[in-house]
Structure formats: structure tokens, C-alpha cells
Specification:
By secondary structure, the protein is of the alpha+beta class. The chain contains four helices and 22 strands. Helix 2 runs antiparallel to helix 3.
């Protein structure tokens, strides 16, 4: 007879794997729904720099390195090329307008002067010979005119006599007609010679004017060529200082080549290179200042150059008041350029985090200062000390402002 076994109640061993699996599933589900999935990185708190967002006055300025330059620089360039024959004034010397600095020689130019003078002499001789020939033609025409007039007078007298005799029937009609025809021919010849004299006079006058004009042009050409020889003396165009002279004796200098410069030391300007980030904000008339010898000196933007090179553009400043003592070309001044009026806002200290984030996000510490969470922000203006925060931070919040190169892909930082 079979005995019926009574089933055991409660959790049996074979049920444990299912129970554990269910618990793990519930825990996993809860982590998925309620857990913090942010990538977390533990860092050394001593290796980061922390700044505080504060409500303060934001001074909109940029700090620049400016170099003192003469107010005007005039380039030295020869109008005529040649060989350096003499250096009259040495570099660094004071010069006056018109002083000869360098003398050049040019044998080719000397030949051109001689050729121009020879052409002028030849043209003058040709004009004189032409005038003599024209005068001879004029005298010949006058002589021919006199002969024709004399012949016409005689023909007229003979015709008058023949006309009276023919009227009295004392001579044949043929003799009378010949006398009249001779007189008519003499009149026609006289008219022709007078027209030729008139035309010759007009032509002679025109030719003389043209030759005299050509001769005048040749004289001016000779003067210009001689002036070119004067240009072999390179002179100072202004009063100032010979700041640079880059030639040596015997050097061949071409026309227009820069060989030096004259510095106008009657005043000075300050030249600075500014990051292209500010090119839309820098304009003429902006004020700037720098500290020197325990005093503050004012500047204003005189000119902004539009060309950008290596990420920077050039700007010239002029003084608005006193100049520092012992000011010299090449000195460096640290300038604060005002880009706008001070305004109230939220600011944070400048830091290297900006290179990684571009100012679009930052790590913000919690109240205990143990964790830092990534947060989107918007940064506006900046000066050498602070960033202006337009969105994303409140006064009193602490942020990490040091570099993010090692953890810019993380969402949460644990400060250990």
C-alpha cells in the first residue's frame, strides 16, 4: 500500500535563484527609472580653481600691449636708381627738411643728359637753317613779285598807248590785241605770285611754330633730365630723426627701393595689436589709459586698420593730454581700452575652462562643495579679470574655472 507524502510548505532551495533574479530585476528597474545615470569622475579638489558668481559692476575694457611710435614716419626711397657714392648723414642723427642724406651716381643718366643736350643742339641748328632757307625763299618771292609788278606796269602802259593809236586807226588791230593780251597775262601772273606769297607765308608761319614748339619741348626735356640728376641726392622730406638707413657704399639702389625712414618726433602715437574678437567693437574715438611713473595718461583711438593678420588687427592711439617724461620710440605701455560703460551684472573670474567650453557650459558646485554638476550658461562680454554671465548662474554659486581638458566629457565631478 502506497503512502502519500505531504508537500512541504515555504521557500525551497530550488526557488532561490528565481527570487534573487526577481529582486535584481526590480533593483535594475528602479535604477533605470529613478537612478542618476550621469557619467561621474572623482577628482582631487586641490587641483582645481573655484570662483564665485557675484553681482557686481562689470567694467567693459580690454588690456593691450602698445608700443610707442613717432606720430609720422616718412619712407626714404630714391626717385632715381644708382650706386651709393656717399653717406652724408648717419643713422640716428637729427635732420632738417632738404638735408642730403645719401648721394648716388648713375653713369647711364649722365649719358642720357649728354644725348638730350646733343639732340637739342641739333634741333636748334636745324631750326636756324630752316629759318635761313625760308628767309631766302621770301626774298626770292619778293624779287619775283617786283619783277612781275614792273612787267605789269610796262604792259599796262604799252596797252594804253596801243589802245589810243588803234582808236585813231594808226596801227593794225593785231598789234592792239597783242598789247591787250600781254597786259592781261601780266595781271594773271601778278595774281598768281601774290597767292603763292600768301600761301608760303602761312606755311612758313606754321612750320616755324611747330619747330619752335618741338624745340621748346626738347628744352623742357633737357631740364627734366638734368633734374633727374638732382634726384640722385636723396634728401629728407621733413624735420626729424633718421631712424633707419639700410645702405652701404657701392650698393646698387633701384628706383623706389626703401632704404630708410625719417621719424617725425614732434609728437608720438601708441600702436597696439588687438584680438580679432573685438574688431566689431573697436572704433575711432574710444578712450584708453595707462599707468606710468605713478601717473595715469589718457589716449584715444585715432585709426583702426581693417586688415586682420594672425588673428589680430592694428590700432593707433594718440595722446589726449600730457605725455610721460623721457618718452621714446619702441617703449611698451600696458593700455586699458574702454569698450563701453560699466554695467551691473553677474560676473565670474576668468579661467582656462573657457578654452574647452567656449563659455557655453560650466561645472557648478553643490551646497556642500563636494560635487560639481555640468550646467549650460551664456557668457557675454569679458575683460582681463572677469566674464559677464548672461544666463545660467545666480549670485553666490561656486563654479570651477580651471581647465576642463581631463573631464570635459563628464557630467558630474566628485571633489575628493
Amino acid at each position: 500500500m502506497d503512502i502519500q507524502l505531504e508537500k512541504k510548505k515555504g521557500i525551497r532551495r530550488k526557488h532561490l535563484p528565481y527570487i534573487i533574479g526577481g529582486v535584481l530585476f526590480i533593483v535594475l528597474l528602479g535604477w533605470i527609472i529613478f537612478g542618476d545615470h550621469s557619467s561621474t569622475l572623482k577628482i582631487d579638489a586641490r587641483g582645481v580653481s573655484i570662483g564665485t558668481a557675484t553681482a557686481d559692476l562689470f567694467n567693459d575694457f580690454v588690456r593691450l600691449d602698445g608700443q610707442v611710435q613717432p606720430i609720422t614716419i616718412v619712407q626714404l626711397s630714391p626717385e632715381e636708381g644708382g650706386i651709393v657714392q656717399q653717406i652724408v648723414i648717419e643713422e640716428g642723427s637729427t635732420v632738417r627738411r632738404g638735408d642730403v642724406i645719401v648721394r648716388l651716381s648713375n653713369s647711364q643718366l649722365d649719358l642720357q643728359i649728354l644725348q638730350a643736350e646733343a639732340d637739342l643742339a641739333e634741333k636748334q641748328n636745324f631750326l636756324r637753317n630752316t629759318l635761313v632757307a625760308m628767309e631766302q625763299d621770301r626774298l626770292s618771292n619778293q624779287n619775283e613779285k617786283l619783277q612781275i609788278e614792273l612787267d605789269m606796269t610796262r604792259r599796262k602802259r604799252s596797252y594804253g598807248q596801243q589802245e589810243k593809236l588803234h582808236a585813231e586807226h594808226l596801227i593794225a588791230r593785231e598789234d592792239y590785241l597783242q598789247a591787250r593780251e600781254d597786259y592781261d597775262l601780266a595781271q594773271q601772273k601778278h595774281a598768281l605770285i601774290m597767292e603763292r606769297i600768301r600761301q608760303d607765308s602761312i606755311l612758313r608761319s606754321t612750320q616755324v611754330e611747330q619747330m619752335e614748339e618741338n624745340l621748346s619741348n626738347m628744352r623742357r626735356n633737357v631740364l627734366l633730365v638734368r633734374e633727374r640728376k638732382d634726384h640722385l641726392d636723396i634728401r629728407s622730406q621733413i624735420n626729424g630723426e633718421l631712424g633707419l638707413l639700410d645702405v652701404v657704399l657701392g650698393q646698387n639702389v633701384s628706383t623706389g627701393q626703401k632704404i630708410g625712414q625719417i621719424n617725425d618726433l614732434s609728437d608720438y602715437k601708441v600702436e597696439a595689436l588687438i584680438d580679432e574678437h573685438y574688431i566689431d567693437r573697436v572704433r575711432t574715438g574710444l578712450n584708453a589709459a595707462f599707468e606710468r611713473q605713478g601717473a595715469s595718461f589718457g589716449l584715444t583711438v585715432q585709426k583702426v586698420y581693417p586688415e586682420v593678420r594672425d588673428g589680430k588687427f592694428r590700432t593707433d592711439f594718440v595722446f589726449t593730454g600730457e605725455r610721460p617724461d623721457n618718452i621714446r620710440s619702441g617703449q611698451t605701455y600696458y593700455i586699458n581700452l574702454e569698450l563701453g560703460q560699466p554695467t551691473e551684472g553677474i560676473v565670474i573670474p576668468k579661467g582656462t575652462f573657457f578654452q574647452s567650453t567656449g563659455g557655453s557650459w560650466i561645472f557648478v558646485l553643490d551646497a556642500e562643495g563636494k560635487r560639481a554638476y555640468r550646467r549650460s550658461i551664456r557668457i557675454g562680454r569679458q575683460n582681463p579679470q572677469y566674464y559677464e554671465v548672461l544666463e545660467g548662474l545666480s549670485p553666490g554659486e561656486k563654479v570651477i574655472v580651471s581647465g576642463y581638458e581631463s573631464y570635459r566629457d563628464n557630467q558630474v565631478l566628485i571633489l575628493d
